[in-house]
Amino acid sequence: MTVHPSPVLRSLASAQPADQAAVRRSNLALVLRHLGARGSRSRAGIAADTGLNKATVSSLVAELVDRGLVREGEPHRAGAVGRPGKDVALDGRCVGGIGVEVNVDYLTAVVLDLTSTVLFEQRVALDVPSLPPEDVLDAVAGLTSRAIRECERRDVLPVGVTVAIPALVDVAAGVVAFAPNLRWRDVPVVRGLADRLTGPLAEHPMPIRVANDANLAALGEHAMGGVAGTADLVHLTGGMGVGAGVISGGRLLGGAEGFSGEVGHIQLDPAGHECGCGRRGCWETLVGMAGMLRLAADADDPVSDPALGLDQRLDMIRCRAETGDRRTLDALERVGAGLGVGAAILINFVNPRAVVLGGYFACLGPYLLGPMRAELRARVIAPDIGGCRVELSTLGFAAASRGGANAALEAVFDDPAIVPIRSAARVSATGSG
Amino acid sequence: MTVHPSPVLRSLASAQPADQAAVRRSNLALVLRHLGARGSRSRAGIAADTGLNKATVSSLVAELVDRGLVREGEPHRAGAVGRPGKDVALDGRCVGGIGVEVNVDYLTAVVLDLTSTVLFEQRVALDVPSLPPEDVLDAVAGLTSRAIRECERRDVLPVGVTVAIPALVDVAAGVVAFAPNLRWRDVPVVRGLADRLTGPLAEHPMPIRVANDANLAALGEHAMGGVAGTADLVHLTGGMGVGAGVISGGRLLGGAEGFSGEVGHIQLDPAGHECGCGRRGCWETLVGMAGMLRLAADADDPVSDPALGLDQRLDMIRCRAETGDRRTLDALERVGAGLGVGAAILINFVNPRAVVLGGYFACLGPYLLGPMRAELRARVIAPDIGGCRVELSTLGFAAASRGGANAALEAVFDDPAIVPIRSAARVSATGSG
């Protein structure tokens, strides 16, 4: 598959010096990114696309093959004359990025290879808010160890771990500043995990990072979702609250301190329902899961049973909608309209190419899209909603962990030379193709 | 002065190939940007900062001196030993960027040199909405010609013109799609100006561009305002409406189609005042100039006289506030609080390091800041307002034209080689310093 890597979680780009060694590394990265973004290519095609000369491309490709990051394809005849050329393509199999998500009632870990193929994915139920953070970190470390062992079993080099948490995260310090739904405050996640993973990290030194789940979900969509490669997108996660992640100009908009995307408490109506934040009519009182349930069912309705799992609850709602239950359909129509009212603010402000509905919005999307789009047409100032389309996430609840794994893989796209040369049998680069 | 150039109005950065000629140009640009951002430096200091070797830096500096973009400073002794070194610094004098603003009741043109020093600035009153766009473009062309002639008179090479308009602008096409306050729709500004400036453009071929005024104002603040160099900032322009410009990660957030920053119609209260857009309680009904006046004075009050100029009106309001007029103070307090309610939404979404109040907000800022900050403290989710400070613009109504001129100068920072070698007397680069 085609992947769309994007710079992540690091200080934003500035002009870089270019001495000879740096040029080589930067060109290695250029070719690898190019193959990641554009798929299989002949050496001549890479040269034409990147402006590098053919001999340089052949040498760079040979090094990337040696590092196990690129493979030769089948010979083909590009035109009527000349020797048959061989395309080269990203070889995902040698490195793995690990994404872990900590959420209210589950942990997920995923390993993606360089082509975003899933090598490992595991979800475990955990009542996170009821546990001390130390116990949760024990469980996270256990799940991460399993992911690393799976990499070892497959002879895959793990290159990084990114933990997604619904929280205000100090990315630079590796600390969760505040996660209201988890009841965490000032939890040093990176240090805590590094302390618990000294064994595996000694064997596979790699960075551990922690970031906001909505931001990572946006990265996941940008890397491998239905709108992959879209340079300007907003991802909205529907859960207990509603969070936003923004990709702008192909880069994550993290904000000055990484605290971007807090959109749940946009006050849409000072006379609206009471919110947990103490105000009334916040966006999430209207479109968060609790708000949707309040509209769709009474408190003693089975669908409101707190013991119900997330998937079961959504299945019940969807089933009622499918069978034409009036109250459910009305509720979803109001949630869809509420999504449009809030999303119009975001679209007017940042003019994205796409808004992706994730989390529970994706599950119930077919009932939300119509009323949402009607509000957008009425409220977005730019003609034709500013060229923005609304899509349902194809990743659903997996977007954040996938985004985390993709973020970890960025290290390889930034500097392919971090992956050691695997093969002594250096592939000859004769400049063919 | 120190300037903070930032990429503008062009497709966002992606990995670039680096062959030898490209490396030279990219390194020229690197050194020029470095001097622009950091001020005067020794060659050794540039080498240390950029990672380039000293001989390369000397050769690059020599070329930049030849192109008139860098000058030698006075000799100094960096330490106790060694030959005295000479610092080098940006030499702004040889090139000029032209910024033009078209607004409801005036046109402005400004010429800035490479150090953002003002070489020329002229404002002419014009009742733009009452004129056909053709007539306005005639006036804009006349003012731009005057700016170009001033460049000629000073032996300054004009490198571009950027026109700021309060409008939805199709930057790529050079067309104003819709400017409600000017009553413009689908006006081909770039073509119209190029047609009117064939003479000057034949002598000085240079790009003409058009962009949204709030976006350019944000660039102006980033380049030369009180928060210059701040990588993440939001600029709010107070006028008839309220517009936002966003700098994110040091780059303008233009959006997918350049339609970002439309924040005036965020609906803060469905039960609020009627807005020109047909809804109620939009942000600009509360904080736009008309909303402020409605609070501060009756319709027959002299301050509400439509014949009054902008500056006079603001002087009267400020004077009343200074003398403690209760109604005026109450009005400004409510406008300040309204600013806080709306700005909290933007801050929660993009987590800027600074919000800059421009336009009329800057004039009356001392009365707005207190109540605004109180609302922000109550409404921004991240602790300590997410590390965001609120500042009054030091550029005021000049921010957009300054931003336009800075945008035009970016061409030089991107590729210093567009400026021809001026001096046959090549300055020797002996690697001293």
TrEMBL record, chains A, B:
Top-rank taxon: Bacteria
Please state every residue range assigned to the domain named HTH marR-type: 30-74
Per UniProt, what is one GO molecular function of this protein?
DNA-binding transcription factor activity
A Pfam family found in this protein is ROK
Q: Which Gene3D superfamilies match?
A: 3.30.420.40, Winged helix-like DNA-binding domain superfamily/Winged helix DNA-binding domain (1.10.10.10)
Family in the record: Belongs to the ROK (NagC/XylR) family.
| Descriptive protein name | ROK family protein
